């Protein structure tokens, strides 16, 4: 390859000396002489990162993209839709190759191939970007490489932190936080504008719920606020980091470093204080995740540094998903008054109006569960399943060979909007899940918003329990209507770290 490139570079020198060409013409002929090299480097399926033909012997189809950048410049805030359209136009829904800068990526928009990737041992690791490493996620369950330490974290998460017993024991926290949210709703409705800005209420409630679940009560307003700002800054940094790395905009790494120091300071201090208080004593009646970690047997104990990383990841990943999903659900309730009424009639029938909905009521609220599933289908918070996988060795996916070191992604949004999989996929219709019970916990890849396989989201049960309980209580207490008669809800979306409503939801809440 190098000898051939040098040969092409000698051509314009020969032309200038032989034909005495002018400089503009020389420039033009130079470009022409480099054309074969350009074609060989970039005009290949998948683009720049796939330029070595040995990496793609089966010719996985994919867009060429831009030199050096791949398809980064064209993704924008609707990457899930653009990738779905590309895969469909190229007949590459099962597997498509593309480049993100110098990173090789394959993506699937098909449930069978998604299962191969998410449940295959060859994709048991995650690609650890520098942003994740700088923000300490490499030592937490989401990004820790497969091995003894990761298996240890996963065992603690599945058997203790997010066990059914633990999720049930935290109902009191969820109920208490929901009381605070409904009180805030009533206050905003009593204000001059008589309009509720739900996003702020849901974000604050979600943050408070996570803080109490992770650290217990008594954290204090100032610390909660600090951690809330840290989470927000972390989202911004991860969103900016890819472009900052490519164009060397500067400051992003320094900001990550400063944020990490702040997290270590605040969370580390909380851990140390709890340890001094005897937080590892099981008899102290605390029921939060930190107390659980401190009470583990000696052989299972985490170092303080690893404990800070694990707790920080719980706060970071647990705060936005619940709030974003609930905002989408409430937007649909305001838009579809008939569906809201049907859900409220179900709540009145099985719970009544004289007591609050409890976790034990949720199994009887079949239509409410169907609403949550339909929103997860139409508006999945992680349309690209957020955290990708990494091929640890060469592996065949379907008929194609995927080389080691390739990032693999699943376009869940494309799967949940595929008319060959779902009837009338663009229609919001919860009844489809009354007609067929499609699970959402990862066993059916037609709808797996929390992922699947070994790297499935460990907190999925806790998150779903929170969303279902809060939704039931909000619908039980209020009728949700548009701010003005005839005004439509804006369902425009924006993909950041998660898929959000582009315009924050405002509406009116009328006490039932």
Automatic annotation (TrEMBL):
Q: Which cofactor does it need?
A: heme
Q: Which InterPro entries does this UniProt record tie to the protein?
A: Cyt_P450 (IPR001128), Cyt_P450_CS (IPR017972), Cyt_P450_E_grp-I (IPR002401), Cyt_P450_sf (IPR036396), Cytochrome_P450_78A (IPR051996)
Q: Where does heme bind?
A: 457
Keyword Mitochondrion listed? The answer is no
Entry's Gene Ontology molecular function annotations: heme binding; iron ion binding; monooxygenase activity; oxidoreductase activity, acting on paired donors, with incorporation or reduction of molecular oxygen
Asked if the keyword Metal-binding belongs to this entry, the reply reads yes
Q: What are the UniProt keywords, alphabetically?
A: Heme, Iron, Metal-binding, Monooxygenase, Oxidoreductase
UniProt-listed Pfam families: p450
- Signal peptide range in chain numbering: none
The UniProt entry's sequence similarity note says: Belongs to the cytochrome P450 family.
Tell me what this protein is called.
Cytochrome P450
């Amino acid at each position: 390859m190098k000898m051939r490139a040098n040969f092409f570079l000698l051509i314009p020198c020969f032309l200038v000396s032989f034909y005495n060409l002018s400089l503009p013409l020389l420039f033009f002929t130079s470009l022409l002489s480099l054309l074969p090299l350009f074609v060989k480097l970039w005009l290949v399926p998948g683009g720049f990162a796939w330029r070595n033909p040995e990496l793609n012997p089966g010719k996985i189809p994919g867009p060429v993209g831009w030199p050096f950048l791949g398809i980064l410049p064209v993704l924008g805030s609707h990457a899930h839709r653009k990738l779905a359209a590309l895969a469909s136009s190229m007949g590459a829904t099962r597997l498509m190759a593309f480049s993100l800068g110098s990173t090789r990526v394959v993506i699937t928009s098909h449930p069978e191939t998604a299962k191969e990737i998410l449940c295959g041992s060859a994709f048991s690791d995650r690609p650890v970007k520098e942003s994740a490493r700088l923000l300490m996620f490499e030592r937490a369950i989401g990004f820790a490489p497969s091995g003894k330490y990761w298996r240890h974290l996963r065992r603690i998460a599945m058997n203790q932190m997010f066990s059914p017993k633990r999720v049930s024991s935290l109902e009191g926290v969820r109920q208490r936080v929901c009381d605070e949210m409904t009180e805030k709703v009533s206050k905003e409705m009593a204000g001059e504008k008589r309009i509720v800005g739900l996003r702020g209420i849901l974000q604050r409630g979600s943050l408070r719920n996570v803080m109490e679940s992770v650290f217990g009560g008594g954290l204090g307003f100032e610390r909660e606020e600090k951690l809330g700002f840290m989470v927000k800054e972390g989202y911004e940094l991860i969103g900016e980091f890819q472009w900052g790395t490519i164009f060397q905009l500067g400051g992003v790494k320094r900001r990550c470093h400063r944020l990490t120091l702040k997290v270590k300071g605040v969370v580390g201090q909380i851990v140390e204080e709890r340890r001094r208080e005897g937080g590892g004593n099981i008899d102290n009646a605390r029921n939060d995740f930190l107390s659980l970690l401190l009470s583990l047997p000696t052989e299972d104990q985490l170092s303080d540094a690893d404990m800070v990383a694990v707790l920080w990841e719980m706060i970071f990943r647990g705060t936005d998903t619940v709030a974003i999903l609930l905002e989408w659900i409430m937007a649909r309730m305001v838009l579809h008054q008939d569906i809201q009424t049907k859900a409220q009639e179900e709540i009145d029938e099985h719970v009544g109006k004289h007591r609050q909905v409890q976790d034990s009521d949720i199994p009887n609220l079949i239509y409410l569960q169907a609403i949550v599933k339909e929103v997860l289908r139409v508006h999945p918070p992680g349309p690209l399943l957020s955290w990708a996988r990494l091929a640890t060795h060469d592996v065949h996916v379907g008929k194609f060979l995927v080389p080691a070191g390739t990032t693999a992604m699943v376009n869940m949004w494309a799967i949940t909007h595929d008319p060959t999989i779902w009837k009338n996929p663009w229609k919001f219709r919860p009844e489809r899940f009354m007609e067929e019970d499609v699970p959402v916990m990862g066993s059916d890849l037609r709808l797996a918003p929390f992922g699947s396989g070994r790297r499935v989201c460990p907190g999925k049960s806790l998150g779903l329990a929170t969303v279902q309980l809060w939704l039931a209580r909000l619908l039980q207490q209020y009728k949700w209507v548009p701010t003005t008669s005839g005004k439509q809800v804006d369902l425009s979306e924006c993909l950041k770290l998660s898929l959000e409503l582009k315009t924050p939801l405002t509406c009116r809440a009328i006490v039932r």
